[in-house]
Amino acid sequence: MKESPLHRRLATTTLLISAGTVLGIGALVFGAAVIIGLNVPGARTHLDVLIIAALLVQSVGTLIALTFVLRRRGHRISAIGFSRPSWRLLHLLWQIPTAVIVVLSAQLLVFAVTGSEPVSDSSTDSIARSAGAVGAVLMFAAVAIITPFWEELFFRGVIYGYVRDRLGATGAITISAIVFALCHGVPILLPYMLALGLCLALLRAFHGNLWGPLGLHIAINSTASFFLLQVVFG
Q1: What pLDDT, on a 0 to 100 scale, did the predictor assign at position 6?
Q2: Least trusted range by pLDDT, from 28-42, 130-144, 165-179
Q3: Secondary structure of the chain in HEC code, one letter for each residue
Q4: What is the predicted pLDDT for the residue at 122?
Q5: What's this model's pTM, rounded to 2 decimal places?
């Protein structure tokens, strides 16, 4: 599907302000959480609540701030990628399972070659158990639903759109996937995140909007986060 052009070309200034907004809010929220944890009496005994609160504030704050920045810079969110969805999204019925197989295969290949073990989620499970039902649900909402929205708006909206205007779709798919993988940090999971970034960017190109990659992103994050709910409610 041919993507509809943005009403306004994304300027380098818009890209830098958007990136600064994402990084700034993350640093501010998690920095404040660390300060509170180290200095507020009793905070260390409620680290689970502090971590979940930080995740929720960071995800909601980033989505709101990024939307505000783009609108102030003259870009409608529909033009960035959240345009009206179409029946073409039914392709996700086969695209999502295919993408899941691809990203898992990429990571399993790395584990097989390096002899590494899958990363343990014991610390996350511990947080979910300590937080209780309400905390686990809030954590699920932040990680599985809100985070995919702002990440798609930034990585497949702003970065993809900026690069596509200058290097075309192939450059946009490649660069946005690499940036997405690098921003998610953990070296052993880099192949997984790179494969996921490529799948998300390909869906962006295929559907011509952000609804396709958002569907995959929510499916991936929800599957991982579902186990947190099982820890609490199972």
Answers
A1: 44
A2: 130-144
A3: CCCCCCCCCCCHHHHHHHHHHHHHHHHHHHHHHHHHHHHCCCHHHHHHHHHHHHHHHHHHHHHHHHHHHHHHCCCCHHHHCCCCCCHHHHHHHHHHHHHHHHHHHHHHHHHHHHCCCCCCCHHHHHHHHHHHHHHHHHHHHHHHHHHHHHHHHHHHHHHHHHHHHHHHHHHHHHHHHHHHHHHCCCHHHHHHHHHHHHHHHHHHHHHCCCHHHHHHHHHHHHHHHHHHHHHHHC
A4: 53
A5: 0.91
